[in-house]
Amino acid sequence: MSKAIKLGAALALSAVAGLTIAQGVSAWGDNSGKEGGRESYTLKQVESGALKNKIVFNSISDSTIGDEKKFVSARENDGSKDMNKTWQTGELTVEEGKEYVIRLYAHNNNPQGTKTVAKDTTVRFNIPTTSESSLTVNGYISASNASPSQYWDGVVFKSSDGRKFYLDYVEGSATFYNNKIGLGGLNVSDKVITNDGIKIGYESLDGKIPGCYEYASYTTIVVKPVFTDHNYVVDKRVRLHGTENWSESVEAKVGDLVDFVIKYQNTTENAVSDVMIRDVLPNNMELASDVVLKNGTNPNGLTLKGNISTGINIGGYAVDATAYVTFTAKVVDKNMICGKNILRNWGQIGVGSVTRQDDADVVVQKTCKEEPKKDCTTNPEMAECQKNEEPKKEESKETPKEMPSTGATEIVMGALGIGSTVTAAGYYLASRKNLR
User: Fold this and answer.
1) Domain coordinates of the chain in residue numbers?
2) What end-to-end distance do the CA atoms of the chain give, in Å?
3) CA dihedral angle for residue 353, residue 354, residue 360, residue 362, rounded to 10 degrees
4) Residue 405 pLDDT more than 60?
5) What band does 433 get if pLDDT is binned at 50, 70 and 90?
6) What is the DSSP annotation of 5-36?
7) 3-state secondary structure of 128
8) How many CA atoms lie within 13 A of 339 on its CB side?
9) Cβ 165 vs Cβ 133: under 8 Å
10) Which residues have C-beta within 8 Å of that of residue 155, sequence separation ≥ 6?
């Protein structure tokens, strides 16, 4: 048995015994147009050829993960990437201060492998932007030549006491797993939580998924519940360096300096101590100044010691007391895409076990020059022209004995590596400002 097949078993056997199914919750569906949804198949029926050449996803009722129509599940995030953990479908109760992994399983059920390849296979998650005591995160699969062509399922997050919360997506957490990639998974684009979603695949992220368990995959994201009944204020703003007005978003160019401010106000009925502040700059920005704290004790500003990306203690605050933390950052181009880049900077304030956050955006429009076309009519001596020149008829009789070797490994790894670079390129994540 090959390593890939063993891993396929691990992916497929995501622990039937460890899968907790909530009774009475049915969130799955498809665009088949049939009352009651698409047809279900047993594993024996599929193995006996019931699908013929039909491509269908997640329709096996007694699969190794149970009923595949319930293909979205979740669990508490403990940092492990092990897919053999206990996953819960239907509903789960969230706790303050914890993170949760949401998993989407995608399986082309046709057993004919590369003879029945699903095309343009795309997955995405929809995270609600409201604040409620119960929120459903839906996962979607689509493939242009599958029947049905779209599938969905959801998992419900609930608070234990009816308190309202919203779900913050942990930026950069999207990960894709299949046999080709291995147990470590591959970081993929944050576009997975947008309407566009991301293409998945087997040998590369090209949307092509052959049939059978060996080619099954998981896509995961991490979310954090943020409860909204805490009485302290966090507000993040930005401005171009040297200007006066603060805003939630500014336009800038590579090389520009921008100022950030994070406001904290204690609006509780009690004094608090050990307020922590943290700020993580996006990939295309660099810290360009000291971090300065202004509050009642330090009205002229105090330079803070420590690393703001890991957290700094800014002291205790009486009722209604306010603190402002400011710093300057420089816009750099490490991996910006051509066109619009949104560099989102999150500021976090932690009081006890509670953390709240807010964000501000720097929008950078990158213009890329087109490669000039080579004019071989005016300069036929160019090396490029000679290389692309049509072979003479008397020299074109002999057929090459073999095709040039390109290197499958280089092609596959190049394609699979796309996700990790575009994740930090500034894709727009839905703002949660209206919830804070």
Assistant:
1) 3-227, 232-365
2) 53
3) 30
4) no
5) very low
6) HHHHHHHH-S-STT-EE-TT----EESS--TT
7) coil
8) 6
9) yes
10) 27, 72, 73, 74, 88, 89, 90, 91, 92, 102, 136, 137, 139
- At 37, which amino acid appears? G
Rounded CA-CA distance 150/336 in Å is: 32
Backbone angles phi, psi at 383, to 5 degrees: -60, -40
Joined together, the tokens standing for residue 209 give 């998924």
Q: Which two tokens stand for residue 19?
A: 């899968």
For residues 235 and 116, the answer to whether their CB atoms sit within 8 Å is no
Burial class (CB in 10 A: 0-12, 13-18, 19+), 406: exposed
CB 108 within 8 A of CB 210: yes
Cα 168 to Cα 165: distance, rounded to the nearest angstrom: 10
C-alpha span between 268 and 254 (Å, rounded) = 41
pLDDT score for 129: 86
Q: What single-letter amino acid sits at 67?
A: D
Backbone angles phi, psi at 9, to 5 degrees: -65, -40
Mean pLDDT of all residues belonging to the chain: 81
Q: pTM higher than 0.70 for the full model?
A: no
**C-alpha span between 274 and 313 (Å, rounded):** 6
Contact 86, 75 (CB under 8 A): yes
pLDDT at 73: 96
Rounded CA Rg of the chain: 26
Token pair listed for 367: 């213009």
Please give the single-letter amino acid code of residue 33: G
Residue spans of beta strands (DSSP E) within 267-353: 276-280, 285-287, 292-294, 302-303, 312-313, 322-331, 339-351
35-38: long-range pairs with CB below 8 Å, 24+: 37/69, 38/69, 38/148, 38/151
Considering only CA atoms, which of 369, 366, 370, 364 is closest in space to residue 338? Answer: 366
Token couple for 257: 């300096």
Q: What is the dihedral of CA 350, 356, 357, 358, to 10 degrees?
A: -130
432 near 166, Cβ under 8 Å?
yes
419 φ/ψ angles, rounded to the nearest 5 degrees: -60, -40
The bridge status of strand 198-199 relative to strand 186-187 is unpaired
- Cα distances (Å, whole numbers) of residue 7 to 13, 216, 301, 408: 9, 10, 56, 21
- Under CATH, which number does the domain 232-365 receive? 2.60.40.740
State whether residue 66 is helix, strand or coil: strand
pLDDT above 80: residue 286: yes
Q: Cβ(105)–Cβ(58) under 8 Å?
A: yes
Residue in the structure block whose two tokens are 């971090």: 291
Q: Which helix (H) or strand (E) holds 84?
A: none
